[in-house]
Records
---
Amino acid sequence: MRTIQWGALLGAFLVLGACGGGDQAANQTPADTAAAPAAQPAAPASNVTLPPGVTPEMVAQGKEIFNSNICWSCHQQNAVGGPLAPALNDTVWLNIDGSYDAIVSTIKTGVPQPKQHPAPMPPMGGAQLTEEQIKALAAYVYSISHGA
Ligand code: HEC
């Protein structure tokens, strides 16, 4: 009797495991879908013309920092946006014009008075970042928002 119950439990776990993932679409908020019809961001923007002095290596480094350091905790993995912070992978800008320099300075200063979100973005998101890391982050944000 006991053995059978455990077997059933184990079976349930296996099924759960097999069904994990694949709910990408369910995570999109209606706002995101409306703002960016071509939602799925292409692989890091091969069709983006990077500003002078910005290299693909910086974009790759910035992506790494974004998704492992503080930024993603509000903007979510790959900057798709969430309740605490906007998507950065679209062409909609709330506080700036989306230029590379404006992205750099926004990361430095944060956003003390958000337009559409409940709480401010602290300078550097609240982390300690070097000038190089900030430039890489801005390169990444620029690349995911300036695709053709
Ligand atoms: C504590 C939450 C939080 C963290 C952490 C955070 N942000 Fe933000 N971010 C925000 C909010 C809130 C806004 C402003 C949204 C608004 O105006 O409604 C914002 C705005 C921005 C903008 C300007 C977007 C626009 O449309 O004007 C950029 C660029 C940005 N963040 C990049 C970053 C980067 C890079 C990091 C990591 C260093 C980061 N953020 C960390 C909350 C956060």
---
Amino acid sequence: MKNIIKYIFFVIIVVSYNSNSFGAENSAKLLNPGWSFKGFTGTFDRASLQRGYQVYTEVCAACHSMKYLSYRNLSEPGGPEFSEEQVKIIASQFEVIDGPNSDGDMYTRAARLSDNFVGPYANEQAARALNGGAYPPDMSVLVKARKGGADYIYSVLLGYGETPSGVTLDDGVYYNTYISGNKIKMANPLTEGLVQYSDGTSATEEQMAKDVVTFLAWAAEPHLEARHKIGFRAILYLIVITILVYFSMKKIWSRIETEV
Ligand code: HEC
């Protein structure tokens, strides 16, 4: 019996061990505020997701697109879970180009639930021209695309500080502890109190960074909660099966043991 308990613990530890925290090689150890969605029973903090969407749309969306997300996703289970009414209002504030109409002309209309997030620039060239040649990457799956994931983006957002003496920076280039080479062509996007949270949470830089990264983590992996639930059930199932097999084995072999 002792062995089987050890085995179950072993399985739980192996499964819940999360290897996402490998740091970037050439820069400082990444910051980690403690994510609710990590670990094998992790879920997204709903309120944080909603605040994170607010930070994205009011701050980051000025430069970063999220073209693989549609407005409808904001009301789906496992995400920020805004009501459909709220999302309709959100979508209607954006304009998309549609058409051609029966006269063959393109026209603009308010976005609908089925439209993808409207980006800030017409194309990559326009984005580069307005950002000193640098391209603000699409953030739909950025958390998955970068080594260090959520920790990395969180760290970059909080990694601005004094430029150390001896480092010279060109115009439009900023010092950041966590980006490789320590130089980034994005000014610190966050300052305390930049957004006004409707739930009364105080908008410190750390809070905004945590919320927006939570939102980005969901965007990159919208089915994380469902996956965790299935994983959890599968483990439970395996544990029950293991116990059953163990006892049936005992029972079968007990006869033979007594005969010896
Ligand atoms: C004024 C425009 C602007 C705003 C606003 C802005 N960014 Fe950026 N961002 C950029 C540019 C340009 C780059 C590319 C920098 C480079 O390549 O050096 C970038 C790069 C980044 C990177 C580094 C990605 C990588 O390649 O590793 C992250 C992370 C990031 N932005 C997150 C954010 C978040 C989160 C927000 C909102 C809180 C935000 N940005 C707001 C312009 C902006």
